[in-house]
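note to self: dont lose this again. the chain is below, predicted strucutre after it. 314 aa total, dont forget to put it in the shared folder this time
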Amino acid sequence: MLTPIRQPKADSERRERAAASRDGRDSVVRELRPGLSTLPVTIAASQPNDADIAMALRDGKTLAGCLLGLALFLGLIPAAYLGIDRAAEIIRPSVVRVVGYGTEKTTPEAKTEKRGRNMAKGKPPEATDEVPGKQVERGVGTGVVIVDKGVILTNLHVVAGAESIRVTFADGLEAPATITALQPENDLAVLQAQKLPDDLIPATMRSTADLMPGDQVVAVGFPFGIGPSVSAGVVSGLNRSFRSPEGKQELGNLIQFDAAANPGNSGGPLINMDGEVLGIVTAILNPTQQRTFIGIGFAVPIENAATAAGSPPF
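---
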């Protein structure tokens, strides 16, 4: 069944998240305080000697741990970053690798992506997979399971023109998939996997109604086919527009973020620190032809993406 999009509880929930972040920082500082008190180091003073480090270790605290606690206490490291692994672990069972097979693309962008995938596999950059009568990887991207019956959201440009599509689930199961719906205006496609893992877990979708610049987000996907890979950042802006490098399509109402994303992340989930899907990673902005990340990524809000799969807008 389709997982309902979870609605925010306005300001009260945001305050609760902020309080939880503060509590997380305070608990870490309390845990590390004995080590901090026994480590006679000041920010502008000399380096600790062996006796200082030994004293901290006798208290069960490492120097690295003490410095981490100090950084948290001073606000140099947001406490929420300590939850990135938890968010990634929640979404991981719902993330799939999507590969479109067919005639190899010959655009400059496609050639750059192919070189990146070759290098990730340990092959020479210009290696080719072409074998007479055999389909090659035409596009590699990411998808996210939103219904436990194998319904997957991804980007249209990942599978456009493919003669066949295969998805690989978190447990390693590989299955053919077919396109069941398209939303070209948002560069979205809905796939149906033909074979499913025994216990397929759909992602939880979260409304972006209370999303704000500065909120922390995590992108999970298969950049250049490597993955699943996890990167973290913040929401940089809302209601952004983006025109494809070829100038053929303009997308609007996008979430701008700075978590690292590269070719292959397309179609993957952009999640919050609770592992809930806020959007579908769609594009990166790079004014050169390098097609690599320079700090500006875009995602289609999950409200738009869910309508492609039949979830009612709200």
